[in-house]
Each structure stands twice: as structure tokens, then as C-alpha cells.
Write a structure and sequence with these properties.
Layout lengths: L5 H11 L5 E8 L12 E7 L4 E5 L1 H6 L4 E2 L2 E4 L3 E14 L6 E13 L4 E8 L6 E10 L1
Antiparallel strand pairs: 1-2, 1-9, 2-3, 3-4, 5-6, 6-7, 7-8, 8-9
Length: 141
Amino acid sequence: MKFFPTFGLVAAVAVSAAPAFAKNYECKLKMGRSGGNWMGPTVYVNYDEANGTAMIIDGIINKYVGKPVPTSSITDNAKRTSFRYRLDTIGGTSTGRSGVAYANHVYSLTIKKPSLSAVITMKPLGYQNTFRDTGTCKVTK
């Protein structure tokens, strides 16, 4: 995956603009084969625990959206924190003759407590595929 120079700047702005009571995660994925080019390699999460909201950015979001996206749901309990988010109408190459295939992608990032190990999945809606990768996170300021 090719990163644009603005990715680091966008991630830094997203994290630095966070309220004082927000928790920021930096999750580095292993970029396993099943994760492909549809996630990572680093996922940044700005989680406002007080308001129950979060913003997420990674290389894919930066490429197709250009700024952090909000989560659609958050599960936070003693064992894990999970963030669900969606990217709409992302184009990708097709193995058929049609050229570019478009799909809405639904993501789920789960950060386990207290190990901060991460599991991320992506499901292109309308397709049977599910992509998965693992990694580790750290809490950043």
C-alpha cells in the first residue's frame, strides 16, 4: 500500500485535536495475507469515552476518504473495546472482466484488555469474503 505524505499529518491532527479525556490508540497490524490491502497497516483511534464516540483513520481511510471517519457503534466492557465503522463505495480491482468493482466495507476493530492485542475484520457487503488481521495497540497521548 502506498502512503501519502499527508497521512502522518492527518493522523497527528486527529490525535492532537482530541479532548483531554479521550483515549488514543495506535494499533499496528501484522498485515497478514488475509488482511490484504483493505486495512492498516496502522490504525489510529481517538476514543472519547465520556461521550461514547470515536474517530478512526488508517491507510485505506486516508486514501479513499482523506480524513478520520466516525464509528457506528462501540462496545466497551472489562474484556474488550470494539469499534465498528463503515466505508461506502470503495473501488477495487475485479477478477472478472468488469474492471473496477465497488462495495461498501464494514469494519470491526477489537482491542482486548489488558493485553491491547487487536483483531480487525472487514466485510465487503454483497460479497462472501471476510478479511481479518491481528496486531498490537498502545495507548498514546
